[in-house]
Specification:
The protein has 897 residues and is an alpha/beta fold. It folds into six domains: 4-61, 2-Layer Sandwich (Phosphorylase Kinase, domain 1); 72-138 and 338-513 and 522-542, 3-Layer(aba) Sandwich (Rossmann fold), CATH 3.40.50.740; 141-332, Dimethylsulfoxide Reductase, domain 2, CATH 3.40.228.10; 590-607 and 620-707, Barwin-like endoglucanases (Beta Barrel); 711-821, no CATH class; 835-896, Arc Repressor Mutant, subunit A (Orthogonal Bundle). 30% of the residues lie in helices and 20% in strands. The strands form nine sheets. Strands 6-5-19-18-17-7-8 form a seven-stranded mixed β-sheet, with helices on both faces. Strands 24-28-25-27-26-29 form a six-stranded mixed beta barrel. A six-stranded antiparallel β-sheet has the order 31-32-30-35-34-33. A hairpin with a 4-residue loop joins β33 (764-770) and β34. α2 crosses α20, α8 runs antiparallel to α11 and α8 (224-237) crosses α12 (276-288). The protein is globular and about 80 Å long. Bound molecules: ligand MGD (2 copies), iron/sulfur cluster and molybdenum atom. InterPro entries: Asp_de-COase-like_dom_sf, BFD-like_2Fe2S-bd_dom, BFD-like_2Fe2S-bd_dom_sf, CT_Nitrate-R-NapA-like, MoPterin_dinucl-bd_dom, Mopterin_OxRdtase, Mopterin_OxRdtase_4Fe-4S_dom, MopterinOxRdtase_cofactor_BS. Residues 10-66 form the 4Fe-4S Mo/W bis-MGD-type domain. This is Nitrate reductase. Belongs to the prokaryotic molybdopterin-containing oxidoreductase family. NasA/NapA/NarB subfamily.
Length: 897
């Protein structure tokens, strides 16, 4: 199997998707230095040819527009030589004046392993600061801490094939249908093949992932540890423990069982909000099913007690010996494409390198290997504390790479202020304008996906190659290269003479094996001699990869041997705690939850560039139960203010029966670049887990209020617009970089003609207005082209649909502009509505009418409309629409009639 095939003017290169931790293989078709098309790599074991919507739209995210193309210092473009010299000089000055600990690095699970390794080596090994943390702190750190407490190592026992073999899959705190879609489809296929397989979803919300659920436990926010403690006690009462496994391979069982048994059934029901019957069903299924996997993600990790929750889960697997066996285990699913790689190089502040903690011995080992006497001797600050140290001035220089903390850190406004006041903020990013690049003193253009080369490790420990496909935009360079240049300019020449990512990788592999007598599970020593050619053609492989296991290791702990001093796995006695309700329940009566939507990735710097990925959801929203909405006098589509003691945002209300009364859900994706006020992380207090340092991002007390919006408008413009006079706005790029589309709320008096003449190059106008409805329509144009088109109305539904708006700027004949002011021809148009299937552009409206006329399964819908037949990301929504329509009163009435 080769990674590249060439024809005369085009070639296909195999690489890996840069989004989620599934780590799908991608076949990329390149022509004339451009990415023409992507498809799933049929030979990659993670996805076997499938891609989800985000992966399938990768080609749309390429191109130079919006990219950071040149280094700059204090806003002035400079050469690379100058930028490198400045970074090196500033870091050396801070080190000399204040000591190495005045320097911090804040990295990302989206860097390649090679980038991450060089950053960690420079910071911890040569500058001598332990302050190297990463956005994985907000993501995986509780899972890491849970594994380390239980197994003595940060090691994921299971693999994806186990998911196909398990007969009970417990998805807890995961909306995999949207966040790990290809894996979810794999699970769906396995369930279809094996009708005995059962799926339990534990989530306060009824999510798209509940489509597969035989049982959904709508747990009270933060109460998971109660459920799993309850399960442990139940296993004991039902005499279903694997006593042999417990005796042979574990320690600490008695104490864990004792704390788990301390809670009464009544209290269990009260704390979890789950009925006795539902709990009993789940517990009974777990008892009955040897092949059980608990699959967990952010609903577990992002909590002030996340590590305890992880261990409460692991306890149940140890107690039944369901670990290290086919189809069984506690399976933490990683979010980012290379969260695992970061963990491997030691890119968390409490790790040194290559799965080594900070001990005197390890510092000596690493010092010898790196040939440096400057290696930091103690763990550094974790993300929340690290930004606090930036705020209080003890950190003078911070280098942020591959992450957007002004959007993603809890208490995000405080992080923003801290960076604005910091003496030296260096930001390496691919994108010119982000909320974080806005705070930078020095900007370094990073090569992005498709331009850089290296490795990533997915959720099942599988290392895959990401390969360069096209030339880097402008002067962008790979992060490892930038780091190595700075290291050399700082005077650390010897350690950083890398010529290629392969040089970095083999050194990383050597370190993993160096003085490793089996006490460190992470060992890829067998890859430490790879030649350039072998590295280039490296096939996906799961670590450990050692001389004993040159083909890698699919499953860990099969022999019941762990990496604790005793070789036994540890039970941890867990006393569950609910999230602290520190603030007034009267002022903030609601529980706020946050997370992801199907088609966007994080702060949208990449997925926001693909117009098709905005067809499913194009505005930031707050989802709520109809009762919660009614209590605040809100209707679907109204503008709402969500406030917490920490901050305030304004977003669109979305009625969602899957959200329980008195709870709210807000997506994490929008930033100040594309929305008026939607950074949800500003609402969360930085309450951290004492073991892992991971902040609570799934719970805050909150209040909800309606914002009056007298008038709504939708605009398209060739150029980006000044939005400062609007009550609220969301912007997005139009397809093919035609311009921008805005959805705004304004006061009734807003003078659009005045506005348009101020902000655009229009010299002539076609206009219509009806004052009674605040109905104003305007097309502004110049000699060359239409510059702006806008429609405003008191009633939002009276505005033209987005698909029609998106196309307006393509109209070139001014004589038609008057006609266009009357809006889309409704007799012809699909009124648009939400696009459910992005691959075949099938709207909710079409799907509903197909169901009403008899399509009663997702297969039927697929046959009729094609929806769901490509990437399958929308299948959960298709089945939910089928259920919704079939239970609607009109439908039933029609059936009966
Ligand atoms: N489309 C898309 N996919 C992504 C990403 C993305 O940005 N967009 N990001 C990637 C990354 S980095 C990550 S970390 C993963 C995250 O993947 P997930 O963890 O699946 O995603 P989230 O939406 O953050 O949260 C999952 C669920 O946790 C639930 N939850 C909240 N509180 C609780 C609780 O107390 N208990 C339980 N049991 N559940 C709770 C939420 O309601 C939510 O449905 O996604 C990855 N995949
Ligand atoms: N309230 C709340 N907050 C959350 C979460 C939540 O669920 N709720 N989830 C948390 C989680 S799990 C995560 S992972 C974080 C994610 O949050 P962030 O990491 O802040 O979000 P991203 O948008 O992924 O930021 C990545 C940045 O790196 C840039 N970039 C992309 N590729 C490269 C590259 O190769 N090199 C360099 N130098 N830059 C690159 C992108 O343009 C982008 O600006 O958010 C966390 N914050
Ligand atoms: S599931 Fe989607 S986002 Fe995740 S790696 Fe695969 S294609 Fe990329
Ligand atoms: Mo994440």
């Amino acid at each position: 199997m080769s990674h590249a095939t060439e024809t005369r003017d085009s070639c296909t290169v195999k690489t890996t998707c840069p989004y989620c931790g599934v780590g799908c293989g991608v076949s990329a078709e390149i022509k004339n230095d451009q990415l023409i098309a992507v498809s799933g790599d049929t030979e990659h074991p993670a996805n076997l040819g499938k891609l989800c919507v985000k992966g399938a739209a990768l080609d749309q995210t390429m191109g130079n527009h919006g990219r950071l193309l040149q280094p700059s210092i204090e806003g002035h473009p400079v050469s690379w030589d100058r930028a490198i010299e400045e970074v090196a000089c500033r870091l050396n000055q801070v080190r000399e004046k204040y000591g190495p600990e005045a320097i911090a690095f804040y990295l990302s699970g989206q860097l390649l392993t090679e980038d991450y390794y060089v950053a960690n080596k420079l910071a911890k090994g040569f500058i001598g600061t332990g302050h190297v943390d990463t956005n994985s702190r907000l993501c995986m750190s509780s899972a890491v801490a849970g594994y380390k407490r239980a197994f003595g190592a940060d090691a994921v026992p299971c693999n994806y094939e186990d998911l196909e073999h398990c007969e009970l899959l417990v998805l807890t705190g995961s909306n995999a249908a949207w966040t790990h879609p290809v894996l979810y489809r794999r699970i769906a296929a396995a369930k279809q093949k094996n009708p005995a397989m059962r799926v339990v979803v534990i989530d306060p919300r009824r999510t798209a992932s509940c489509d597969l659920a035989d049982l959904h436990l709508a747990v009270a926010p933060g109460a998971d540890a109660f459920i799993f403690n309850g399960l442990l006690a139940f296993l004991d009462r039902a005499d279903q423990l694997d006593r042999h496994y417990i005796e042979q391979h574990t320690e600490g069982f008695a104490a864990a069982l004792e704390t788990a048994s301390a809670i009464s059934q009544a209290e269990l029901e009260q704390q979890t909000g789950i009925s006795r019957e539902e709990l009993a069903t789940f517990y009974q299924w777990f008892v009955e099913t040897e092949k059980s996997i608990t699959f967990y993600s952010m609903g577990i990790n992002q909590s002030a007690t996340g590590t305890d929750k992880c261990n409460a889960i692991i306890n149940c697997h140890l107690a039944t010996g369901r670990i290290g066996k086919l189809g069984a285990g506690p399976f933490s699913i990683t979010g980012q494409p290379n969260a695992m790689g970061g963990r491997e190089v030691g890119g968390l502040a409490n790790m040194l390198a290559a799965h080594m903690d900070y001990t005197t011995e390890n510092v000596a080992t690493v010092s010898a290997f790196w040939n440096s006497d400057k290696v930091s001797k103690k763990a550094g600050l974790k993300a929340v504390d690290l930004f606090d140290a930036v705020a209080d001035g003890s950190i003078k220089a911070i280098w942020i790479m591959g992450t957007n903390p002004v959007v993603s850190m809890p208490n995000a406004d405080r992080v923003k202020a801290a960076l604005e006041h910091c003496e030296t903020v260096i930001v390496s990013d691919c994108i010119a304008e982000t909320d974080t690049t806005a705070t930078a003193n020095i900007l370094l253009p990073a090569a992005g996906w498709g331009e850089k080369s290296g490795t990533v490790t997915n959720s099942e420990r599988r290392i895959s190659r990401q390969r360069a496909l096209v030339s880097a935009a402008g002067e962008a360079r790979a992060d490892w290269w930038i780091l190595a240049q700075v290291a050399k300019a700082m005077g650390f020449s010897d350690g950083f003479n890398y010529q290629s990512p392969r040089d970095v990788f083999v050194e990383h592999a050597q370190l993993s094996d160096y003085q490793n007598q089996g006490q460190r599970l992470f060992n890829i020593g067998a890859l430490s001699q790879l030649s350039e050619t072998h590295y280039d053609s490296l096939q996906p492989i799961q670590w450990p990869v050692t001389t004993n296991r040159p083909q890698g290791t699919t499953r860990l702990f099969e022999d019941g041997q762990f990496v604790t001093p005793s070789g036994r796995a540890r039970f941890i006695a867990i006393t569950p705690r609910l999230p602290a309700k520190r603030k007034s329940q009267r002022r903030y009566p609601l529980a706020l939850n946050s997370g992801r939507i199907r088609d966007q990735w994080h702060t949208m710097t990449r997925t926001g560039r693909a117009a098709s990925l905005l067809d499913h959801t194009d505005q930031p929203f707050v989802a709520m139960h109809p009762d919660t909405a009614a209590a605040a006098d809100l209707q679907n589509g109204d503008l709402a203010e969500v406030s917490t003691p920490q901050g305030v945002i304004q977003v669109i209300s979305l009625i969602d029966l899957g959200v329980k009364p008195e709870q709210l859900f807000v997506p994490i994706h929008w930033s100040n670049q594309n929305a008026h006020s939607a950074r949800v992380a500003t609402l969360f207090e930085a309450i951290i887990d004492p073991v892992s340092g991971q902040p609570e991002s799934k719970f805050s007390r909150a209040a909800l209020k309606k914002i009056e919006s007298p008038c709504w408008a939708t605009l398209v413009s060739r150029t980006a617009l000044d939005c400062s006079e609007f009550i609220n706005w969301t912007s997005a790029a139009l397809p093919r970089q035609l311009g921008f589309i805005y959805q705004v709320a304004v006061s009734a008096e807003f003078n659009w003609q005045h506005y348009a003449s101020k902000v655009t190059g229009a010299t002539a106008y076609a206009q219509f207005s009806d004052a009674a409805n605040f109905d104003q329509r305007l097309i502004g144009y110049s000699d060359q082209q239409m510059e702006i088109a806008l429609f405003s109305h008191r009633q939002k539904p009276s505005l033209p649909n987005k698909a029609w708006m998106q196309d307006l700027l393509n109209n070139r004949a001014p004589e038609n502009y008057w006609r266009l002011l009357s809006g889309p021809d409704l007799s012809l148009a699909d009124s648009g509505g939400k696009l459910i299937c992005s691959c075949f552009k099938v709207s909710e409206e079409h799907i509903i009418s197909a169901i009403e006329t008899g399509a009663d399964s997702t297969e039927q819908l697929g046959k009729q409309l094609q929806c769901g037949t490509n990437c399958g990301s929308c299948i959960p929504e298709l089945s939910s629409l089928i259920k919704q329509v079939q239970t609607s009163s009109q439908f039933l009435a029609k059936q009966i009639g």
